[in-house]
Amino acid sequence: MSMAALSGTHLLQNPDHRINNFATHSHHSLVTSIRPTGPTSVRPISIKCAAVPTTTQTNDRPQAQTSSPDRVFNFAPGPATLPETVLKKAESELYVWRDSGMSVMEMSHRGKDFLSIIQKAESDLRTLLDIPEEYHVLFLQGGATTQFAALPLNLCKPEDQVDYVVTGSWGDKAFKEAQKFCTPNVIWSGKSEKYTKIPSFSELDQLQNPHARYLHICSNETIHGVEFKDYPTPKNPNGVLIADMSSNFCSKPVDVSRFGVIYAGAQKNVGPSGVTIVIIRKDLIGNAQDITPVMLDYKIQAENNSLYNTPPCYAIYMCGLVFEDLLEQGGLKEVEKKNKKKAEILYNAIEESNGFYRCPVEKSVRSLMNVPFTLEKSELEGEFIKEAAKEKMVQLKGHRSVGGMRASIYNAMSLAGVEKLVAFMKDFQSRHA
């Protein structure tokens, strides 16, 4: 966890600092007790944010992201910005968690204190996504990239065929890793069109192998900014749908029952880097290949409740705080409304720029999380990124494989941050068009 986000002086002056409301041991009352009760302010800057009218009603709380003059608007694709209310809650509990006498970072992962943390995190995630009882929830390590190998090792034999839909770099990486452990087929790839679209489901239905053990998709491609708005169905009645949801996990409601496995690195929407969440149907575990490393065996991880070895305890704790925050916002339906509102404002600014800014992605599948765009005058892109950084808007440079710019506007990116970016874009255009 970045110490820049914490007040070390405050902790040193208050070595036994803790929230006083812990007698109730109520997570929701704790979060509420530290939330700002009045409007927040932004330190004066040269770019003014105009109010953007909208007819969409959302349950907007004060945006704590803008309350500190020391914080930037972080548009990074991951590790990404976290809710400031969550960071402040973590700060208050950093030195001593409740009445444990120690930090979460010092706890035994098998002790009652950490067990209460991980169990509450799982319970809240189940509530958020309405996860059925017939699914395990695992908190693992190694990033989503490790799951590229774990999936075929657990679900396939070497000769089993599986289908991959490749809509971007991460889908391509998942396919290439699966080649080591089963017989995967790329049934559709958007590479020839620079990953700017998603195939129709009728097209996929014709392309699928009726004997494929599973159908794998990446629900949102972080680099290229394409997102599945709905999900295909495996042609094999005994096959399962698997989704890498790393960059849009918990950004909107999802019908978990349509999937055999959902997996996601936490560092986009639900926590810091270090923990990967796997939601897997219980009947799919227990058939791992003999060569499967013990740490990649879903059965072993499920039997040990994600505690076979020491897990990323503090990252799991942070995820738990984010889950509480999402529930307090009204759940994922309300979160999705906010995400749609932010994305609409940014995409509209691009579309209304008369070609000065361009988004290459087909409109029907543009991501609500990652917005790539280029400048008509590509030689100005470096200046755009440099000037934006001076206005405390950082990490806007596009991925090295595609260039341009990319604004990642995950759950924790405030509406104020998007409005400031749009105001800057319009000002930049007026000076360089």
Summarize the structure.
The chain has 433 residues and is α/β, with parallel strands linked by helices. It has twelve helices and 14 strands. Helix 5 packs across helix 6 and helix 10 runs parallel beside helix 12.
Provide key terms for this protein:
single chain, alpha/beta, three-stranded antiparallel beta sheet, about 35% helix, globular, disordered N terminus
Question: Can you put this structure into words, describing what you see?
Answer:
With about 425 residues, the protein is an alpha/beta fold. The strands form four sheets. Strands 2-10-9-8-5-3-4 form a seven-stranded mixed sheet. The chain has a three-stranded antiparallel sheet with strand order 11-12-14, with helices on one face. About 45% of the residues are buried. The chain contains twelve helices and 14 strands. Mean pLDDT is about 90; it is low at about 1-60 and about 60-65.
Hey, roughly how much beta strand do the residues contain? 5-15%
Task: Say what oligomer this is.
Answer: single chain
Strand order within the widest sheet?
2-10-9-8-5-3-4
Mean of all residue-level pLDDT scores:
88
Summed up, the helix count is 12
State the separation between the terminal residues, measured CA to CA. 41 Å
Mind sketching the topology for me?
Elements: H1 8-13, H2 27-34, E1 73-74, H3 84-93, H4 112-129, E2 135-140, H5 143-155, E3 161-166, H6 169-178, E4 183-189, H7 201-207, E5 214-218, E6 220-221, E7 226-227, E8 240-244, E9 261-265, E10 276-281, H8 298-303, H9 313-328, H10 332-351, E11 357-358, E12 370-375, H11 381-390, E13 393-394, E14 405-408, H12 415-432
Parallel strand pairs: 1-13, 3-4, 3-5, 5-8, 8-9
Antiparallel strand pairs: 2-10, 6-7, 9-10, 11-12, 12-14
